[in-house]
Structures are given as C-alpha cells and as structure tokens.
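Figure 3 (text version): structure tokens given as input.
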C-alpha cells in the first residue's frame, strides 16, 4: 500500500490572483458592485490605465476656478473679481448656483469672461429664464476693445426665446478671453454662463 506520509512530491505552485472591488453604473442609474479578479502583477497596470483616462470637460466660467467677469461701459472695462461679487448683479453669470438670476434689459450687452489662463472650449450655454434675443461668442488671447479685429468669432448669432436655454457646440478653440455679445429684444431674467472645456495645460 502506498504511504502518503512519505510522498515528498511538491504541490505545483498556484498563481496568486487578486480581486478588486469596483462599481459600475447600471442603466437604471443605480450603482452596482462588481468584482474583477486579476493576476496580482496586473493590478499596477490596471491602476495605471485608470489614471490616464481623459478628464471630463468642465464649466470653466466659474469664480472658484479662477475666472473673472469684465463689463463694458462706454468703451471701458469694469473688472469684477471675487471680492466684488456682492456689489454687481451681473456677478451671477459666473455663479455655480443655477437658481440665481439677473434681469437683463433690451439692447446690446458685451460680457467678457477672463478664464484666468488659456483654455480649450468647445461648448457654451446660457441658463436663460425669461429673456429673448440672441448671442454670439468671440475669443481672443489678449484683452482688447470689443470692436478689435483680435476677437475671432466662435459662432454665428444664436437666437433664443423666453424659457429656452440655448446651447451651442463649436470647433474646439484655445483662448484666454471669451466675449458673449448679446442682443436682447425682450427684457427678462437670465442665469449663469456655461463655458465648457478643459484648461489648455492638460494634454489633449
């Protein structure tokens, strides 16, 4: 009879497998837990892959991201910075609060957003409530008078009606200053701007 106590054969080495818990969004919007088992030595590669995924675009026309707002009055610029926010109704244009509004009168209005640094923009929206009219977007690398040839058109005129939130996508453009040229035909309330893109310093 075979004596298993004297059997010195080694048990084959088993490859270690590590399991990682992650979460995936389901179609219903719920978050489901999923377990992925990968060989231990592949964990580092998997983590590296997650780190190099492109970052999502964000709204760069925000006070907390370093943007400032310039009003144009009689051909002169009036810069609004964070300490001045409570002094100007127009400061809500760079607010993160979608419930805040500013009453805009009929006529032409030029608003310049100083993004704080160069950015690549590709979409814009206006959180309009009840105003009607149109807007056009222009970009410049330097702050120039509103009629200067340095301002390059990003879009044609975009018309909108009261209760409509206009949104426009355009070819990705790098700029430091964004001018929103508005022609208001019906007085009403507008909310914040949405200038969607990425800082130019991030890799494409």
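Below: residues designed for each position.
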């Amino acid at each position: 009879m075979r004596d298993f106590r004297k059997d010195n054969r080694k048990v084959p080495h088993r490859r270690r497998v590590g399991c990682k818990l992650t979460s995936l969004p389901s179609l219903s919007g719920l978050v489901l837990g999923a377990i992925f088992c990968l060989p231990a030595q592949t964990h580092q590669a998997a983590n590296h892959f997650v780190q190099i995924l492109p970052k999502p675009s964000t709204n760069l026309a925000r006070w907390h991201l370093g943007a400032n707002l310039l009003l144009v009055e009689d051909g002169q610029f009036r810069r609004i910075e964070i300490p001045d926010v409570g002094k100007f109704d127009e400061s809500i244009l760079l607010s993160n609060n979608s419930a805040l509004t500013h009453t805009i009168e009929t006529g032409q209005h030029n608003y310049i957003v100083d993004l704080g640094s160069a950015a690549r923009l590709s979409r814009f929206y206006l959180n309009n409530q009840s105003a009607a009219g149109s807007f056009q977007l222009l970009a410049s690398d330097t702050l120039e008078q509103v009629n200067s040839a340095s301002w390059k058109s990003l879009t044609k005129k975009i018309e909108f009606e009261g209760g409509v939130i206009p949104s426009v996508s355009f070819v990705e453009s790098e700029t430091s200053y964004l001018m929103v040229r508005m022609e208001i035909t019906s007085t009403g309330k507008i909310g914040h701007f949405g200038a969607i893109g990425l800082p130019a310093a991030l890799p494409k």
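Residues 50 and 64 are 27 Å apart (CA to CA).
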